[in-house]
Amino acid sequence: MGNKVKLRVFLDRLRLGFAVSVAKGVTFIVRSLGLGAASVLPGSIARRIQPRLLELLSQQVKNGVILIAGTNGKTTTALLLCTILQRQGYRIAHNSTGANLENGLMTALMENANLVGRLNVDYAILEVDENIVPRVLKPILPRIILCLNLFRDQLDRYGEVDSISQRWTRVISTLPLETVVIPNADDPTLSYLGQQLPQKVLFFGMSEPEQYLEAIPHAVDSIYCPRCGHSLDYQGVYLSHLGDFTCPQCGFGKSQPTLDSREWPQILVGLYNKYNTLAAVTAALELGVDVGTIQATINNFQAAFGRAEDLVIDHKRVRILLSKNPVGTNETIRVVTESDDTTTLLVLNDRTPDGTDVSWIWDVDTEKLVQRGGTVVVSGDRVYDMALRLRYSEHGADSQLKLIVEEDLRQAIAIALKHTPDDETLHILPTYSAMLEVREILTGRKIL
Questions:
Q1: CA distance 223 to 247
Q2: Does residue 82 have a known ligand-binding role?
Q3: Which of 139, 147, 205, 446 has CB atoms 3.0–4.6 Å from 185's, for a disulfide?
Q4: What is the rounded average pLDDT of the residues 357-374?
Q5: Active site residue: 156, 260, 310, 357, which one?
Q6: Residue 150 contacts by C-beta under 8 Å, 6 or more apart in sequence?
Q7: Per the annotation, does 225 bind a ligand?
Q8: Nearest of 58, 27, 248 to residue 138 by alpha carbon
Q9: Which residues of 58-69 are buried (b: 16+ CB within 10 A; e: fewer)?
Q10: CA 446 vs CA 309, 376, 411: distances in Å
Q11: In what helix (H) or strand (E) does residue 180 lie, and over which residues does it extend?
Q12: β-strand pairing of 92-94 with 123-128
């Protein structure tokens, strides 16, 4: 190693240590003053001091970094895999707050580093926003990439799912051949992505036709062949465009999942959590985790905040189901309508974390919620947009729905709880920023 190289390495380490020390100081100040979780700001400041921060920290993870990308399910899948590996005795770095842009990834890694920038963990599990995947793959060089699904999400920020998939393919294909890619076989764009890669590819997916939906829902994004553009023939769909499919034009079809979905129980409620379970299990088995450890973790798993999280408030059961895009909301509505509970609270915000374009609510099958009747309370920044969507859903329906519109979120929660019988559960379906507000109200103090 030449003197210039040695000097560059020394300066990189020196700058890294200084960056981490400053970040830890910022974290201490922010948390001490009660200004927030400090999940993003430390990374934003530290990267200005050491631009190669993400790369230098990722290189120190002993057994490699696991990236989890997709539109829905990242936080739950990451928490499940993290819990499995911790039960196996591994030390894990994890962006558990859900801060999944570059600054959040850096902050999570620095949280586990000492004051001179030394990282002592076995694995790093990082959930990553689907739009930044191409930017972080090269500096991180992950050991495993989990590709959960691709749906339309924030219409003001992201393009079509096909363009995102193409960007993923271009970058992933240039990674080392040792990289393991685990895509969703039931998602046509991701199934095709996996078939194009030179790396080792393991697929996860469903093999339970009895779980098919009665029809393809409105909120579908990718029912055309990613190879030739022809309409796909679906034997059945599990949710949105995820299902069993073939292309009658070119022969493209669903990839074969590595695991039989029937052999594995799922975490939490909702079919979408079966996908989260299968993704995490596939990764855990690839890492050599004991089957007994995996099964025990699934059986005792606790939800991440706001993701099928159960609370007891004023002696009433409350379940928070994050609902931030058409597919996710359709699935949470399915959970509600399959229950015997009669009270639901919908909270629609249009802030930056949610996406400022709320036109996606017109792709949600709110008709199913209206048809079952009961009490629906609506609130949030765009409360009247949500109320209007529900009113249109009543057209031509013989519904006994009681719709309550309340601008003030605290009051809306109180009203919803009041209308919830003691032996039932109040289901709250909020967008992301609304979910944080709901949790702050519910867990801060009693509201009645």
A1: 10
A2: no
A3: 205
A4: 92
A5: 357
A6: 70, 71, 130, 161, 164, 165, 187, 189, 190, 221, 222
A7: yes
A8: 58
A9: bebbeebbbbbb
A10: 17, 22, 12
A11: strand 180-183
A12: parallel
Residue 156 has pLDDT above 50, yes or no: no
| Spatial contact of 122 and 94, defined as CB atoms under 8 Å apart | no
Give the residue, 8 or 152, on which the prediction is more confident.
8
Residues 21-56 pLDDT 10s: 999 999 999 989 888 788 899 999 999 999 999 999
Q: Return the bridge partners of 293, or none.
A: none
Please, what sign has the CA dihedral across residues 70, 390, 369, 380? positive
- Nearest CA to 439 among 365, 364, 345? 345
Write out the two tokens for 345.
């609270």
d(CA 138, CA 142): 8
- Dig out the tokens for 391 from the structure: 């009113």
Rounded Cα gap, residues 68 and 385, in angstroms: 33
Taking alpha carbons only, the member of 261, 271, 260, 189 closest to residue 238 is: 271
Task: Write out the two tokens for 331.
Answer: 């699935």
Q: What is the pLDDT of residue 158?
A: 42
Cβ–Cβ under 8 Å, residues 54 and 65:
no
Residue owning tokens 């093999």: 207
Active site annotation includes 363: no
Q: Tell whether residue 250 is among the known ligand binding residues.
A: yes
Q: What are phi and psi of 412, to 5 degrees?
A: -65, -40
Question: DSSP 3-state assignment of 415?
Answer: helix
